[in-house]
Design brief:
By secondary structure, this protein is of the alpha+beta class. The protein has two domains: about 150 residues, VKOR domain (de novo design (two linked rop proteins), Up-down Bundle), CATH 1.20.1440; about 160 residues, Glutaredoxin. It contains eleven helices and ten strands. The strands form three sheets. A five-stranded mixed beta sheet has the order 4-3-6-7-10, sandwiched between helices. A hairpin with a 2-residue loop joins strand 6 and strand 7. Helix 1 runs antiparallel to helix 3 and helix 4 packs antiparallel against helix 5.
């Protein structure tokens, strides 16, 4: 009875692993779990290894476990099963302490692995060998070095003095055309006075995750090692969380934050009105001329219309409402 139960649980875990892998490779993670936490986990670099989704690796090892178990080679099957559970335990740990998001399908898979190990070891581990359990703990630490081997070199010019008493922060995405327009205009604005321009990259689609992470990685680290990319990825996640807070829970860019003398103004979207608000804010704090504040003789890079525009998750672009907060 216990043998049939164990075989059934391993088969069920294999099916779940395959479904997770297929959902990742076709880019339809919401087929299994549509929560934003699941999408965040499966769009991260922790979801793949050598471009192959981890679900496929797990399914392959579980098939091997099943074959060994049915052939009566329980010791070898348990070693692989516990090694797999140790690896999955580390991935769950990463979701909690690093990604700060728990994936429902991953938790279901981990629970099934844990149950399979419990059923398979009843009366086996207690009878003598505890090696499978030790292998599970060992794989937990092996996974840590596989994902976070200490291979990071910071750029020597990372720490710089502030360029000005006023600061403009922009949350922008590589796939957002309105962000490019805003950046071009803000560079021009920053060059006119004592202003520091800070770019905070975010990803609004799966397609621009790699570009965003690579940009941050190149700015912070000498060499784009695996560890450097994962640390850069975390910076992008933190930027996205901050952008959501500034936009009532929705990830939509560009978002421009003008800070000066303890005063802070948040501007959502970009267009002539947003550009004018930034100019007025900087002019009010620095006493620049009214002609500069009005934007005379300055070229703008946006096309037509008087509305401010944003790009949000799903590549949907539209008009921004309630663009400014004091």
């Amino acid at each position: 009875m216990r043998r049939k139960l164990c075989v059934s649980m391993i088969i069920a875990a294999t099916v779940v692993a395959l479904l997770i892998g297929i959902a990742d490779i076709v880019g339809e993670t919401d087929l299994l779990c549509s929560a934003s936490t699941c999408l965040k986990v499966h769009s991260s670099s922790f979801a793949t290894s050598f471009v192959i989704p981890l679900g496929f690796y797990a399914a392959a090892f579980l098939c091997l476990v099943l074959v060994l178990y049915l052939k009566g080679k329980k010791e070898a099957a348990l070693l692989i099963l516990f090694a797999l559970m140790g690896f999955e335990a580390y991935l769950t740990f990463i979701q909690v302490v690093f990604i700060h998001s728990l994936c429902t399908s991953c938790i279901v898979f981990f629970t099934m692995l844990l149950a399979s190990c419990t059923v398979a070891t009843r009366g086996h581990v207690q009878g003598g060998s505890k090696i499978p359990v030790l292998v599970g703990f060992f794989m937990f630490f092996v996974a840590h070095f596989a994902f976070f081997f200490p291979n990071v070199e910071l750029r020597p010019n990372l720490t710089q003095l502030s360029h000005g008493s006023k600061k403009i922060e922009i949350f922008a995405s590589p796939s957002c055309s309105h962000c490019e327009e805003a950046l071009a205009d803000l560079r021009s604005l920053a060059s006119h006075g004592d202003v520091e321009l800070v770019v905070r990259p975010v990803s609004i689609s799966r397609n621009d995750v790699t570009r965003t992470v690579r940009w941050v990685c190149q700015k912070l680290f000498r060499c784009p090692s695996v560890t450097a990319q994962k640390l850069a990825e975390k910076i992008v996640w933190e930027n996205q969380e901050e952008a959501r807070k500034l936009n009532n829970g929705t990830l939509a860019v560009p978002i421009v934050v003008v800070s000066s003398g303890g005063h802070r103004r948040v501007i959502r979207g970009w267009g002539p009105e947003a550009s004018q608000l930034v100019r007025e804010e900087l002019a009010a704090q620095s006493g620049l001329s009214q002609a500069w504040a009005a934007g005379e003789n300055t070229a703008h890079f946006f096309a037509g219309g008087e509305e401010n525009h944003v790009c949000s998750t799903g590549n949907a672009c539209g008009s921004a409402t309630g663009i400014a907060d004091n």
